[in-house]
Design brief:
Blueprint: H1 2-23, H2 33-48, H3 64-71, E1 86-88, E2 95-97, H4 102-107, H5 116-137, H6 141-157, H7 168-186, H8 192-205, H9 218-231, H10 234-250, H11 252-262, H12 282-290, H13 293-310, H14 314-335, H15 346-362, H16 380-385
Antiparallel strand pairs: 1-2
Helix pairs in contact: 1-5, 1-6, 2-3, 5-6, 5-7, 6-15, 7-8, 7-15, 8-10, 9-10, 9-14, 13-14, 13-15, 14-15
Length: 389
């Protein structure tokens, strides 16, 4: 098995090197409108510090936005109010950007003019690290095979479809880390409240990269909410409370951006664009069925079913329930979303697949469930009393 690990480690590194080589030739003026907005947010942070969270066009005094739009031959590049992903506030007092501040913040960590390449290289290296960890942690032939195949695909995905939006690079990193911590939460980790809080914080921080990432937490709240309603114990209540409080803390950057740009912490700068009633569009469904996202969806659903069927510990089966609920809620959301892109359901699929992978490589030996237990074990309340905090 060591020879297999060495071989696939070299394969992972080869894919990573290929990705880095491709990324090194990327241009920050590739003609994608959203890119300009993420880069402008980064420019505002570098120029004004934390107050750069205010994206009002009134700050556009150095010609940065006009220069970026001109570089991609954008029509009306010299008219700021015609710029993409900018909208007028409800009171008509100013024009602001619609994306949340997180992607611009991580881009601002790198020098202007050389931001996208180092961001993607760093994200690729981190994902390769997670893939290597899963590969070398696997002890069974089946889990080793899963780690080898998925690890190679995960690194490749950091080029396609991740390159479609700058917000996807940090999102993919958060999905991998959250998947690992979620698996550890249900498979024998003793610091449960701390782990729950970290998972909640990561899920909410991902919203700073893409507003739609808020749906990634839906299955977690469903699981912990139902757990409390079923068991009604102090442990289940405190666990759900820890998740909720940590989630709110992680949303503070988004709340702050909304307050500054829209005048209210709960009102997004997207305005009416994100409040349209959901509906089932056959054209959108057909697009997903024809897209490479669909096979990944099938794999994620099948993997979740297998985890439930062959999980020999209560924690593993509970993890399968969480993943299944999260998949169902996220897929339902995007199936009824009026717009299709090649990466919309990639975050939930990667979060689910990373969670399933780490569940496979970590389930060796005894594992305790979070709330319930195997039918031949102690009663639920007895088990709950043993959960360390």
């Amino acid at each position: 098995m060591r020879a297999v690990r060495v071989f696939f480690s070299l394969l992972f590194l080869a894919i990573l090197a290929s990705n880095v080589r491709a990324i090194s030739h990327w241009s920050e003026s590739r003609g994608v409108y959203d890119d300009i907005c993420y880069l402008r947010q980064a420019h505002l942070f570098q120029r004004f510090g934390w107050t750069g969270i205010d994206t009002s066009l009134a700050h556009e005094t150095d010609g940065y936005l006009a220069g970026k739009l001109r570089s991609i031959d954008f029509p009306n590049w010299n008219e700021p109010t015609r710029a993409p992903c900018h909208t007028e506030t409800a009171d008509g007092s100013k024009w602001v950007m619609t994306p949340p501040p997180g992607t611009g913040f991580v881009l601002a960590l790198f020098p202007e003019g050389f931001q996208v390449i180092p961001l993607y290289v760093l994200a690729n290296v981190i994902i390769a690290g997670f893939a290597l960890y899963g590969l070398w942690r696997a002890r069974e032939p089946g889990s080793l095979t899963l780690a080898a195949v998925f690890g190679a695909l995960a690194i490749y995905f950091m080029i396609n479809p991740t390159k479609a939006s700058y917000s996807m690079a940090p999102t993919m990193v958060v999905c991998a880390l959250t998947g690992l911590l979620t698996a550890r939460l249900f498979i024998g980790d003793r610091r449960r409240l701390l782990m729950i809080a970290i998972v909640g914080l990561l899920l909410s921080l991902s919203v700073s990269f893409r507003i739609a990432n808020i749906v990634l937490a839906a299955g977690y709240f469903l699981f912990f909410g139902v757990s409390f309603l079923v068991w009604r114990t102090r442990e289940s209540f405190v666990s759900g409370l820890a998740l909720g409080l940590a989630f709110l803390v992680g949303l503070l950057p988004v709340f702050a951006a909304n307050l500054v740009n829209s005048g209210h912490p709960l009102v997004s700068a997207y305005g009416g664009q994100d409040t349209a009633a959901p509906y089932l569009d056959p054209a959108v469904l057909a697009a997903y069925l024809r897209d490479p996202q669909f096979p990944l969806m099938v794999v994620a659903c099948a993997g979740t079913a297998l985890l439930w069927r062959f999980g020999d510990h209560a924690g593993v089966r509970q993890l399968a329930l969480l993943v299944a609920g999260n998949l169902a809620l996220n897929l339902a959301f995007f199936a009824t979303h009026p717009v299709f892109t090649q990466y919309y359901i990639i975050p939930i699929l990667m979060l689910s697949l990373w969670t399933l992978l780490f569940a496979a490589v970590l389930t060796r030996g005894p594992a305790r469930g979070f709330i319930a237990q195997k039918s031949d074990g102690p009663r639920p309340r007895e088990m709950l009393s043993r959960i360390p905090h």
